[in-house]
Amino acid sequence: MKITEQDLKNISLLSKIKIDEETSDSLIKDLESILTMVNKMDELDTSKINPLTHPIENTQTLREDIEKKDIEREKLQELSKEKDSGFYLTPKVIE
Amino acid sequence: MSELINLSLTDQILGLADKSFSSKEITEAYLNEIKKKESLNCFISVFEEESEEKALMADENIAKNKARPLEGIPIAHKDIFCIKDKKTTCGSKMLSNFISPYSSEVFSKLDTAGAITLGKTNMDEFAMGSSNETSFYGNVLNPINEKLSPGGSSGGSAAAVRANLCSFATATDTGGSIRQPASFCGVTGIKPTYGRVSRWGMIAFASSLDQAGIIAKNAKDAAIALKYMSGFDQKDSTSLNEEVKDLQKEVDTDQEHVIGIPKEVIEKIKNDQVRDSFRNAISILEKDGAKIQEINLPNIEYSLPAYYVIAPAECSANLARYDGIRFGHRSESVSSLEDLYVNSRTEGFGREVKNRIFIGTFCLSAGYYDAFYNKALKIRNLIKSDFDEAFKKVSSIAMPTCSNSSFELGSINDPVEMYEQDIYTIPANLAGLPALSIPSGTVDEMPIGLQLIGNYLEEGRILNLANKFQKLTNFHEFK
After folding, report:
1. Residues 357-376 of B with CB under 8 A from A
2. Which of A46, B145, B300, B338 would disulfide-bridge B378, Cβ 3.0–4.6 Å?
3. What is the average pLDDT across B407-413?
4. What is the mean pLDDT of residues B378-391?
5. B252 neighbors B389 (Cβ within 8 angstroms)
6. B-contacting residues of A 70-89, CB under 8 Å?
7. Average pLDDT, integer, range B206-231
C-alpha cells in the first residue's frame, strides 16, 4: 500500500503531530510496511460477519446516584503549568 | 541477608509469619540489590525511605498478629499504574512531570493487602514496544545477558523479578507485554481475563485489549499475587462483577487437563529449537496424565494484522487527551492554541508512539474506516469464535509464547519485524482470554516460554497446569 505526501499531511493534521521533512521518507517506509502487513486481512471474506468491538459481553453496571468526592479539583489543577482562578489557560483564541 | 531475596513469595509469607526473618530485613535486602544492579535500569523511581518505614509498620502488625495476606512483602509496580502523589511516567517524556492525584485500583488493592511498594519499573513508552527500547528513560538490560533485550513492554517488571529486585511485580499486557518479557527473562507471567483486574488508574493504551497482571518467580506466587489484585471495581465500567476464586488454593488442587494444540500454529513454527522445546514441554505434561488433543484455530494468522489496526486505532483516540493543557508536557514555544497542541504532542511523544498514532489516525480517517477498522473488528469476532469452538473440547490451549528467545538490543529496526514478536500472544488479547507464560526450555542459551491460554475466568485452571509443570521441571528455577 502506498502512502502519499498528501496522506502524510492529512495524518499530521488530524493527529496534531508535526512531521518534519527529514523523517518523512523513513516514516512513509514504516507506515507502508505496517499497512502492507495489515492488508493480509483482505484474504478473508468477512461480508457476513458482525464486527466485535469488545471481547466480553458485559452490561454497564450502574452505582447508586450519590455524590462522590474521589478527586480533588485543586489537586488536579496543580498538574497544569498555566491556570488561574480555577481555569486552565491557553493562548488567546479570539483576537 | 541476600538469600532472602532468592526466596519465593510463598516462602517469604511463611518466613514472615513464623518470624524467621522480618519485613525490615527483606526490604533492606531488596533495596541493596536494587542499588547494586542499578545499571540494569529496571526502575524509574525507587521509594527507599517510605519502603523502610512501611516495613517497620509491617513488622509491628506481624508482632501483634494483625498481619494482612501480603504483609511486609516488597513488590514493584510497572510505571503505568498511578500512585497518589508519586510520579507516574508511563515511560514517556509526555508524563515525565506527572504526579498522580489519585491511586490505581491495582496499587490500592495490593497496598491494602499489606504489600510494600519498593518502586516503579521501567517500560516501553505508553506500553508500546516489545524490547523496552522505546522508553524515554532508556532500555532495560536483560539480567541473564546484558547485551540482550528483556522484552517489552513490561521489561522492567520481568527483569526486576529475574534479578531478584522484588518479590513480584505488576505488569500490563495489551498484545503480549507480560508474557513476552516473562519468556525472555525466564520468569512466570500471567494476563488474566479481560475485566478481571480493574483498569482504574492504569494509563490507557488500547482500552478493549489492556489488562493488568503479574510477573512472578513461579505459578504459585503468581496465583497468590493475582488473587489479591483481582475483583470487581465500580470505577471501571468494563470490570467483571464475578466472584474472585481462591487461586492460591486452586493452583495446588488435583485437576484433570485436556490441552489443545492448535495445528495451524505448530505447523508454522520456523525455529526448530522452539518447536522441539514446545514438543518436549507437552510430552512432560502428557506423561503426567494430561490429555492432548489437536485443535483448529483457522483464523489465527489474521490476529497480527487485525491487532495492528485495532490497537493503534484505540491508541490514537486514547492519546488524544495529551493536549499540553491540563497535564503532561506543555511546549514552551507556543504562539497559538494550535501550536500548543501540535508542539506539546510533537515534543512529548517518541517515534514508536507517534507511528502508532499515525496508523490509528489513518485507519479511522474518512474512506478507510470500513476497509481497516471495521474489517479488523470482524476478524476479531472470527478469532473469538474459533476460541469458543476450541474450548468446547479442551480445558486449555498450549503454544509457544514467542517464536524466538531474546534478541540483541538495537538489532531489530523494522517495525513489522518487531510487531511479529507478539504473533503468538496477540490472539488471547483479541478474545479477552486469560493466558500465561512459564519457562519451558532454552533457545540459543536463553530462556523461552510455554504459553497456556484458558477459557474465560479460568485463570485457576491454567495456573494449576503451570504449577504441575513447574513441579515436574526446573526451568523456572534461578538464583
Report:
1. 357-359, 361-363, 365, 372, 374-376
2. A46
3. 96
4. 98
5. no
6. 70-72, 75-82, 88
7. 98
Confidence class for position B1, pLDDT limits 50, 70, 90: low
Average pLDDT over residues B334-341: 95
Active site annotation includes B153: yes
Is the preceding omega at residue B153 within 30 degrees of 0, hence cis?
A: yes
Strands B258-262 and B291-295: parallel
Confidence of residue A4 (pLDDT cuts 50, 70, 90): very high
Joined grid coordinates for residue B37: 544492579
**B305 by DSSP, 3-state: which?**
helix
Is the pLDDT score of A74 beyond 70?
yes
Q: Which amino acid is at B476?
A: H
Nearest-by-Cβ selection for A55 from B359, B379, B431: B431
B303-318 and B375-390 helices, crossing angle to 10° = 120
Q: Which of B136, B39, B52, B40 is nearest to B90 (CA)?
A: B136
Cα angle for residues B153, B421, B146 (degrees, 5° grid): 60
Q: Inter-chain contact A50–B378, Cβ cutoff 8 Å?
A: yes
Please choose, from the candidates B127, B90, B142, B205, the residue with its C-alpha nearest in 3D space to the C-alpha of residue B410.
Answer: B142
Residue of B343, B356, B362, B433 to mutate for A, most A C-beta atoms under 10 A: B362
CB atoms within 10 A of CB A48: 6
Strands B396-400 and B258-262, bridge-based pairing:
parallel
Residues 30-49 of A with CB under 8 A from B: 30-31, 33-44, 46, 49
Closest CA to B111 of B68, B160, B164, B60: B68
Tell me if B456 sits within 8 A of B290, measured CB to CB: no
Annotated catalytic residue B45: no
**Phi then psi dihedrals of residue B259, to 5 deg:** -100, 125
Contacts of B321 (CB under 8 A, 6+ apart): none
* Strand order through the sheet with B446-454: B43-46, B116-121, B74-78, B169-173, B211-216, B188-191, B435-443, B446-454, B396-400, B258-262, B291-295
Nearest to B9 by CA among B58, B75, B95: B75
Contact criterion met (CB below 8 Å) for B373 and B273: no
B78 a catalytic residue? yes
Cα(B249)–Cα(B94) distance, rounded to whole angstroms? 42
State the average pLDDT over residues B31-58: 98
B177, B239, B303, B395: which one is catalytic?
B177
CB contact B181 to A (< 8 Å): no
Question: Which pLDDT score, from 0 to 100, does residue B168 have?
Answer: 98
- How many other C-beta atoms are found inside a 10 Å radius of the C-beta of residue B206? 23
ipTM: 0.95
Q: Is B128 left (phi over 0), alpha (psi -120 to 50) or beta?
A: beta
Q: Is B309 on the interface with A (CB under 8 A)?
A: yes
DSSP H or E segment with residue B258:
strand B258-262
C-alpha cell at position B224: 497468590
